[in-house]
Structure formats: C-alpha cells, structure tokens
Amino acid sequence: LAGIEGGIRGFMLKNISVLKPFISGKLRKDPLVMSTLSNTVTLTNIFNPAGSANQIAQETTASLDCRLLPGFPVQKFLSKIRKSASNENATVRIIHQSQDAGPSELKDHYYRLSESLKKAYPECEIIPILFPATTDNNYFRKYDIPTYGINPVCFDKEILKTIHNEDERISIDNLEKGIMVYYDILQSALKDQMNLLTRKADLLNYSAK
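^ that's the sequence the OP posted. Answer follows.
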C-alpha cells in the first residue's frame, strides 16, 4: 500500500511502526483503519437474571466480540481482558474461537481474480489486506486449500455503517459491477478448464496413435 500511495502518505505507511506515537491519535479517529492495525473488543450483549427493578443483580454476563491481529497470543489477550475487568470475581472464558490459519500464497487464482477486478475497475490496485471481519476462509486454509476473499464493490463510509444495521444496502451500480466481476471470473475459470481438457484429449489421441 505504501508503494501504491507514494509521497508522504507512502512514507508514513512504510514506517508506521516507527511513527506510531505521532500518528496513533489520527488513526484512532478512523475505526475502520484502526480495526486492521490493532486488536479490537466490542461489547455485543449484556444479560442480567430476571429480578425486581429495585434489586441489583447478583450476577451479570457480558459477551465480547474480539478480533485479534494474526499471530497475537490468545492467552496474552485474555490476560489483558481480565486485568481490564478490575474485579477478582470476574470470570473470563472463550465461548467460540475461530480457526487460526495463515494467508494463502498468491498463485494463479489470485491473479485471475485481480484481472477480473481490473476489468470492472480499471483504476483500482489489487493488494492483500487484513479483513476486519469473519469468513470461512481460514477453515479451508487450515487444509492448505488456497482461498481468496474478494468484495467486488466500492463502499463509502455511509454505506459501511449500514452493514448488519438498519437499511443495509449496496447501490445498483455496485451490484451490477459485482456481478460483472464474478461473471468474468467464472468465464476465465471455465476457459482454463476447457483448455486443460483439450490438452488432455490431444495427449490421449497422440498416445493412441
């Protein structure tokens, strides 16, 4: 990304770890960017047992949705959560942990996806990113199945705010371009498959002769 941006922005991105004390305040103002650079914790549910309105609950359960950066030790993260609770009676446990797996190598399928995206968005640049959400990709990667996730549409901040929220939507233009990308990917994959079958048939014919 630093190479694509160039200039001062590129320099700052390339040296982000060194410049962290100077730019962390600005980065924190952009939650989307921060979610790709740091561990995140979101309170998603609080539950108290049924009781009268004038009674303080003896027990409260809170659910936290936690997203960890790749390679960050889970136990170290849990220790920080326990310390943040500041309550010796608080119990912290993992309800569900997604599969951990490294990124797939950039091979033929990745470049096929890139070509299809560039046809729909000629001015775009294709780079791997850390996706700050959950997908099934890691479950495939665990078994060394190359897996690439794409979202072939352009979202502005207002549209991003609607994800899993009221009035979740994408524009008609985005929908049409997304369909175009997937259509081109499938055509490319089928063309390669047909070429492979043709080569196999030619080899069989040659062997028969």
